[in-house]
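Sample intake sheet
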Amino acid sequence: MSRLPKNLQLALSACIVIAMSFIYGAHPSVILPYIFGFEVRDLELKNIFRAIMGIYIAFGGYWIYGIINKNHWRSATIVNILFMGGLAGGRLVSTILDGWSPQYGAGMIAEAVMMWWGLWNLRFYDIEE
C-alpha cells in the first residue's frame, strides 16, 4: 500500500504546470527576460508563449478534473505521464545536443520523477482497484 495519497502526483503536477503557464504567458515581454535572459518582442513569439500558457492550463485543469472525477483519474494520469515524459525527453535531447542548462536541468529531473511517479501510481492503483 502506498503511503502517499493517490492524487498527490496529479495535484502537484497541476499546481506546478499551471504556475509555470503564467510565467511563460502572463506577460512574456517582461517576465521572460528577467528569468531567462532573452527578449520577447515579436508578436509571433508572444503568441507562442501565450499558446504554451493555454495548453499548460488545459492540461493542469484536466489533471484536477481527474482528481475530482474518479472515472477520469486513469486517463488524467496517462496524459500526465505523456506530458511529463515528453518534456523530460525534449530536455534530454537538448542537453545532449546543446549542453547542460542549470535552469532546465532541474526541471528535466523533476519532470522525469513526475513521469515515473505517475507510472508507479498507474500500476499500483490499477492493481488495487
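Comment: The CA atoms of residues 31 and 86 lie 24 Å apart. The mean pLDDT is 93.
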